[in-house]
Amino acid sequence: MTHWSARLSPAQLNSEPARATCRMASVEAAAEHERILREIESTDTNCIGPTLRSVYDGQEHGLFMEKLDARIRNHDREIEKMCNHHFQGFVDSITELLKVRGEAQKLKSQVTETNRRLQDDGKELLNSMEELKQCRVQQRNIATTIDKLTHCLPVLEMYSRLQEQMRAKRYYPALRTLEQLEQTCLPRAGQYRFCSIMAENIPKLRTQIRDTAMSQLRDFLESIRKHSDKIGETAIKQAQLQRSLDSSVSTQPRALIGRRVRKEAAAGAGTDGGSPLSEQDSGILDVEDEEEEEEDVPGAQDLVDFSPVYRCLHIYTVLGLRDARLVLQPHSNMHETLEGYRRYFNQIVGFFVVEDHVLHTTQSLVNRAYVEELWETHSSYCDDPDLVLDLKNLIVLFADTLQGYGFPVSQLFDMLLEMREQYGEILLKKWNITFRQVLDQDNYSPIPVSSEQEYRHYTSQFPLQDPELEKLPFPKKLPFSEFVPKVYCQLKEFIYACLKYSEDLHLSSTEVDDMIRKSTNLLLSRTLSHCLQYAIKKKNVGLAELVQVIINTTHLEHCCHFLEEFISNITNVPPDTVNATKLYGTSTFKDARHAAEAEIYTSLNAKIDQFLQLADYDWTAPVQGGGTLAPSDYLTDLIAFLRSTFSVFTNLPGKVAQTACMSACKHISTSLMQLLLDPEVRQISMGAMHQLNTDIKECESFARAGPVAGFQGDTLLLAFSDLRQLLDLFTQWDWSAYLADYGKPSCKYLRVNPHTALALLEKMRETGRKNNVFAQFRKTDRDRQKLIDTIIKQLRNLITQHQS
Hints:
GO cellular component, one term: plasma membrane
Strand content: under 5%
Largest sheet: 2 strands, antiparallel
Structural class: mainly alpha
Distance between the termini: 122 Å
Number of strands: 2
Keywords: Coiled coil, Exocytosis, Transport
Number of helices: 28
Order of helices and strands: HHHHHHHHHHHHHHEHHEHHHHHHHHHHHH
Protein name: Exocyst complex component
Radius of gyration: 62 Å
Strand order of the largest sheet: 1-2
Function: Component of the exocyst complex involved in the docking of exocytic vesicles with fusion sites on the plasma membrane.
């Protein structure tokens, strides 16, 4: 009211409308203040700023402060009323809490005292329980220890027993103990350190037992080696005794003879070529009844202790092995003499008597198939053909003697026929060494002959038939080298050696002829052929040597019919007999000659490549203004080499020399073409083309000279025709004719491939671009480059047309 009164004049205040207006203004201000207070009470303090700002923006903030103080006093009175209303209850609650605190303190003291007494009383119980626990643990440990000792003591006892058996060398019981220890006792004992040590030692002990048993078996084999001769001699004596008793067999009891025959069947059967063993024979060559024979001959058991065999067999059976077999090898010098063979036969008989004894007294150590296999292998030791012949004669004499007394000896002769194949193989090995020596010692040059006697000496060794050569005066040269007569004589010696074995075998002439021819074919097709191939293919063989090999094989090929006649003469069988085997000598020597020819072509081309590697063309050389170009040095040397080489080819067959010459010329032409088209050669100038043209002219001059006779006309020049037409096209620059006539039979450059021409033109274009730096300022060079570009486009169009 004071504020509004200050703003109104006294006249306005005194008027009734003014007073009404003033009342309305105060009512609105009071309502506004009330709203602001409610908003302050209900609004968060963070948002009260705008509300207070509206108060201060107005003119009635004094009146608002009065309203605010009055509202604060009202709230204070309400709070005081509320506190007065709840004060007595609060006081009662505090009093009760104080009483509860005292009771709680008493309860705490009682609980603490009770817990102390319980702890004191429980200590004695805990001590008793701990003592009981320790007693239970000790009781359990004792029971476990007793159980483990129950399992471990047998292991220790068995291992101790094993050690005693090993010290006593009772290996078979030790092996059984070892097996029981490993499979039964150790798994029950558990994982202990001493068990692990024992398990690690078991393989070592088993290996020790095996090695000891094998050592004893080796000692036994040494004993067999010492006594096998005596055992075999005893068996042969018993066989001889049996044959001596055959004449009086009717006067002896049947049962005694039956026993003797069974005991000596092995040695008797071994003499006539059959099986040296008997199913009923025990292998012990002792006399069965000492009272029936005054002179008792010792047997295998009397001379040899077989206990190491049985012991090793038992041990290896337990170990699961089967490699303890008897092996007796003959001495290396046993086959040098016939007496050595007699001793060898004694040892073989003794050895198989021992094997037969082991066969009948053991199981699974050896079987009959194994023994028979050993018997078959003892016929393959000898590698001396002369000794085999002596042995054959000894067996034939022995067989004829027995046959005279009525004994069947067909098996012996069958064995001799089987030995014939072995004898043939021995001969082939011997002649293989002989042929190698002849080839290595040959000088591969024609044999010089200075007298009629010397000439007759060689013609007596080899059937040479050359009337023109006979007319020539001495000194002269035979066309072949020493290799030819020596090989021919060795072939005859081989035929004689085959004939010697067939003597006294009661074979027909046809069978002997067939045997000799088959053996000779093996010598020609296998042994001699391989030796010739070896001589041709070995390193450092020159062209002259290869030429001589061809000449030699040609003469040997021509003499094959003389070998046919030679065999027919010594066997008395005509060569035209039906089913007669023909010799393979012709094909053998043809194959060798063809191999030598192929080697000549290869070696000649390789030598040409060596010269071509020296070629050093200057592909960017300019065109020389005047004078003639000289051929390249490498090509001059190459032509000289070819002339000297082809001069040696005069004794060769015409086709061989012509083929070699044509092959060499073609190889030169192809190699020079490859030089032109080499990708590494990126530029070629016309100067280089002129130099190459000069070299080709030199080659053509060599071809026209006819280095080898037999070519018709300019046939040899055809080898250089491709390169000649290509060089003419470039040196004469005759592109209009080439492009116009390409593909026609009458084309002058029919052999020029457009791809080749295009490749060379592109290389020439590169040369023009890089060398002629100022070409753009010279009209002639610009015109030439444009011409080359035009020809290249035309060639590409030509290639595209023919491809489509």
